[in-house]
Amino acid sequence: MTASLPTRRRTVVVGALAASLVAATVGLAPQSASAATDQGWLRIGHLSPDTKSVDVELSGLSGGKTVFELDDVAYGQVSPYEKLPTGTYVLSMRASDAPDSTPVISTDVTVQGGDASTVVAFGKSSALETAAFTDDLQQPGDGKAKLRLVQAATTAKTVDVSTAEGTAIASDAAFGTATKYATVDAGKWDLDISGGGQIGSADVDLAGNTVSTLFVLDDSEGDLTVVPVTDAAATAETPAGGVQTGGGGTAAARPTTDLVHAVVRVFRGLFG
Q1: Contact, 149 vs 195, CB < 8 A?
Q2: Residue 1 falls inside a structural domain
Q3: Rounded to whole angstroms, how far apart are CA atoms 74 and 51?
Q4: How many structural domains does the chain have?
Q5: Per-residue DSSP letters for 105-117?
Q6: Looking at the domain assignment, is residue 79 inside a domain?
Q7: Considering the domain boundaries, does residue 51 fall inside one?
Q8: pTM score, whole prediction
């Protein structure tokens, strides 16, 4: 999820998976009637295919106090949003099986007042990078869905995503970037993915009045796949007018262990 690899096509049905994970994290979504200017929202994603599961720690830049932690975050997982005071923090990731080791990556992240952001670690472990994307959680209204694409597949420098009917969702989406949001009709979408000599497809079910991110990833056979994560949905109140968050990740602040392990098992079954 190189041009020299044989072209293969792999279909992955992801709508039901995304829905089940969203439902599992509903009790963990941040709740807020209005976005406070002295607080923002942050979520973390592990998008490095050959990096082991990691423990994530977010600490204050001044004083080093731990703000929240995530345990055993596996490839393809994106955490629910965490509500935080504005400011700059240090994000560290360490191998889960070596919690006292040197972080595989450490970077500064900034929380802006009233904004939501997604910070991801991506690329191969030998050249691990991070990127921060600003999330637009303004919902599109009934009968519509808003989505963007994050290109994190290491086997393709760029990818194209289109519907089976030929409507472009994203063109030449560069590795390590996020596209702009697009508003489309809600419903079931058959998507074709291509890039780096690889092709794949995914069936995505986009509910009305939702905002989603489609993460393009490597699968266990070196092909491309798409994992959708619901950023905002019309079931509760969450940051910036959005609603339900998460959809593929561990919970913040040492969440319920059984839930985390269940989600980990689902993604390990998907990606090998």
Answers
A1: no
A2: no
A3: 9
A4: 1
A5: EEEEEEEPTT-EE
A6: yes
A7: yes
A8: 0.74
